[in-house]
Amino acid sequence: MPSQIVSLVVNGEPREFIAAPGMTLLAGLRESLGLTAAKRGCGQGTCGSCTVLVEGQARAACLVAVETVAGLSVSTLEGVATGGELDAVQSSFVDNFATQCGFCTAGMIMVTEALLDRDPDPSEEDVAEAISGNVCRCTGYQPIVIAILDAARRRREERASR
Amino acid sequence: MTYRLAAIDKSSFAAEREDDFTVIGSVVRRSDALGHVTGRTEFFEDVAPPGLAHLKMHRSARHHARIAGVDLTEALAVPGVLKILTHADIPNNLYTPLKLIGVGPDDEPILAVDKVRYLGEPICAVVAVTEAAALEGAARVKVTYEDLPAVFDVEEALAEGAPLVNEYHGQNHFIYEGHHCRRIRFGDVEKAFAEADHVFEWRYQSAPIEQAPVETTGCVVIPQADGRLRIHSDTQACFFTLDNTALILETPFNKLRIVGGTVGGGFGGKVDVVVEPVACVAAMMTDRPVKFVYNRYEEMQVSSPRAAERIYIKDAVMDDGRIIGRKVTLYVDSGAYARHTPYGTTKAAAHLPGPYSIPNVWADCHCVFTNRTPSSAMRGFGVTIGDFALESQMDRIARALDMDPLRLRLLNAYRDGDLKAHRKVAEGTALVEVIQKAAEMSGHELPEAYRRMSSLTREGL
Amino acid sequence: MAIHAVHVPESAEAAVALAGRGAWVMGGGTVVMPLVTSGAATATELVSLSKAGLSGIEVRDGTVRIGAAATLTAVGEHPRLAFLRPALRTIASPTIRNQATLGGNLFVAQPYGDLAVCLLALGATCEIAGPGGRRDAPVAEVLASGVTGGEVVVAVLAPLPEPGTWYYRKAMRRRLNSASIVTVASVTRTAGGVVTSSGIALGGVAPRPVRAVSAERLLLGRPLTPEVLTEAGEAARADTAPADDAYASAWYRTRVLPVHLRRAFLG
């Protein structure tokens, strides 16, 4: 069977690319669309570094065949900052030293975005569960948990001041 | 901001302080954080040159075997396969990790020649236009083996009649300047054992530990118009990689350019120069950019872990807790090849007998070859497992003597000016103060005499 | 093998037709896609159930019918399936649960597949569509011998347990996102202080989820005391065939089975 054209709405923009059968969403984003923030760490859904949002839900992009998400909306880390301004999660990750090598960061931020969209005031336990599929080998997780709780607070304050 | 900025503890060594710190004690934003949180940091695999070819390795299915034959017919017939490299294609088919610091022999083929020495050893490199074709090609390489007996235990490997793992060495241990191991001889431990109130001997061992970086080991090599090769790599050691790759390619150093420094987790696991040389040969032979990156299985199975170690410690101890003799026999499992483990074993020896002043020390530290995955660097390699053994030993002695483990350590801790077993005079030791502070912070009470001890004096000894 | 096509049919019938041609049936892709990516898939075509109209969850007359393509997240969010939430929370991460499906969970290798253990304890029935029409089969049968070529599990029917009769415990290496060492799920009814009926399913202790029939038999007519449950847990060893893996040894699993069976009931 030949390759086909796949259409997605990526970070709010309609995008099309040619996909070989069985291409993963991760390969489509990285290799066809040049959106390389999502990373390949394991190729089997266990490290979380490829996490993106599909219709607002966190997904391991390495486990998604592009054919199954045709026409859907996909959000990646590239679309999080608006107008050059970091969002609350990004700035909290910077300020709380939640990044070290940076390889897990895209996945960590995307699961956080999904978590905070669903639950603006998560407990530490909720945070631990949300990131339980994301492996970080540098930080020991504590700075990331702190950054996510801080990001939640910043978001709530932003909303309240609006 | 919610992190804790701890005040600098100035209570010790006040006379040595100048307090002219400009960075320590202040908050400094990481220079790479902005790239990380926006996804703009460029890791090597984010480089996607047009025409990129993919390299996948056909690896040994045996722990130890003679290669009777390699049949590439089916693999070459896979659509999209461009080239299959064998050992004959590598200009200097031997890794050279320690050559530039004068340590030899080079003992590890880039691609196996007539024998495989561990499970997963690379045999042929399949280069194809797509990753899928490279995978299929690698799966279709047919290797016939004649099995050889394998050895997986350091002491069995050193025993009479053990199978020879690595012919480049000629025996199953690394030779240190004519000696069968790294040795320490200081005082007379046998006399100490005879004089001691107690002799304690215990065994410690560890398994190999994989660094498990989230980004797997790999590189993208791009041939340049001027004939140079540009290597995008996640190596932890850019210049080391450049030098070693040039030696293997038998090319001047200035024919290579490394783009690196952005490493998705290394922890020592990306210090060996393993993927770049073969990817460079593939790029030269196909005149295309080539990517060679481990999958997760390869990262766990064939990238070199922290070495397994086995350590025997025998101590001569007096009733009051003074250790007057320490004898250590330490085995480091290098796996099938040396890589950085001879150096790690030297580090293990250098770390003995731990941070204690012991007047009689004897140590034999063996770097042993077995048919396991070659081991190499990982965070304090050579030291960490030794520390686990030494400090476990200290705790067990304290328990056996019914003594406070911190007091046992304070009694034996080295002081500035002590002559160590390596004939070096200790300076800047600070162990006494660190233990005192740890005791204070954890609410562990020490008697006045122990609180008054200092690493600068011999008070209380 | 390289994949030649991924089909996303819009009906169960179309999925069955494609499965009949030898296409691999794919739920959320959490098991199939790693095989595809690593070149280890032995089929050249995949059929995804994601748009085949099989994601519905309905409750009628005390029985729930869950479409095979319902995600674990969707199962956990259904108000009438709240009793399964503690079990679902022990399976992988929220991200994976957004993808992984009920149907797929029936076909994953142990020590994964804790939802299948729950379904086994509930005495669920699979609705299977095939070239010859539809048929029903006990979940135990599907777990033991799968389905035949060209068949697709389209839904699972399970009786909802009465309040106070559902028990679940999973022992694992970490508190979250960790495979099973021992999983225990049970619907057990008591009256007058003694057990009147009991269905117990175990995960992590055999090549597939198994019923602990020896333990079920032993509990009948007896109270749920630590002593009785320990005895039942020891009896349950007869129903298991544990293996060593990266999470635990067979020896350890056998050793701790009675402990976790007891804790499933008494905490």
UniProtKB/TrEMBL annotation, chain A:
This is (2Fe-2S)-binding protein. InterPro entries: 2Fe-2S-bd (IPR002888), 2Fe-2S-bd_dom_sf (IPR036884), 2Fe-2S_ferredoxin-like_sf (IPR036010), 2Fe-2S_ferredoxin-type (IPR001041), 2Fe2S_fd_BS (IPR006058), Beta-grasp_dom_sf (IPR012675), Diverse_Oxidoreductases (IPR051452). Keywords: 2Fe-2S, Iron, Iron-sulfur, Metal-binding, Oxidoreductase. It comes from Sphaerisporangium corydalis. Gene3D superfamilies: 3.10.20.30, [2Fe-2S]-binding domain. Signal peptide: none annotated. Residues 4-80 form the 2Fe-2S ferredoxin-type domain.
Automatic annotation (TrEMBL), chain B:
InterPro entries: Ald_Oxase/Xan_DH_a/b, Ald_Oxase/Xan_DH_a/b_sf, Ald_Oxase/xanthine_DH-like, AldOxase/xan_DH_MoCoBD1, AldOxase/xan_DH_Mopterin-bd_sf. The keyword Transferase does not apply. Residues 38-149 form the Aldehyde oxidase/xanthine dehydrogenase a/b hammerhead domain. Keywords: Molybdenum, Oxidoreductase. It comes from the Bacteria. PANTHER family: ALDEHYDE OXIDASE 1-RELATED, XANTHINE DEHYDROGENASE. This is Xanthine dehydrogenase family protein molybdopterin-binding subunit.
Automatic annotation (TrEMBL), chain C:
The keyword Flavoprotein applies. InterPro entries: CO_DH_flav_C (IPR005107), CO_DH_flav_C_dom_sf (IPR036683), Diverse_Substr_Oxidored (IPR051312), FAD-bd_PCMH (IPR016166), FAD-bd_PCMH-like_sf (IPR036318), FAD-bd_PCMH_sub2 (IPR016169), Mopterin_DH_FAD-bd (IPR002346). Signal peptide: none annotated. Keywords: FAD, Flavoprotein, Oxidoreductase. Gene3D superfamilies: 3.30.465.10, CO dehydrogenase flavoprotein, C-terminal domain. PROSITE patterns: FAD_PCMH. Residues 1-163 form the FAD-binding PCMH-type domain. PANTHER family: XANTHINE DEHYDROGENASE SUBUNIT C-RELATED. This is FAD binding domain-containing protein.
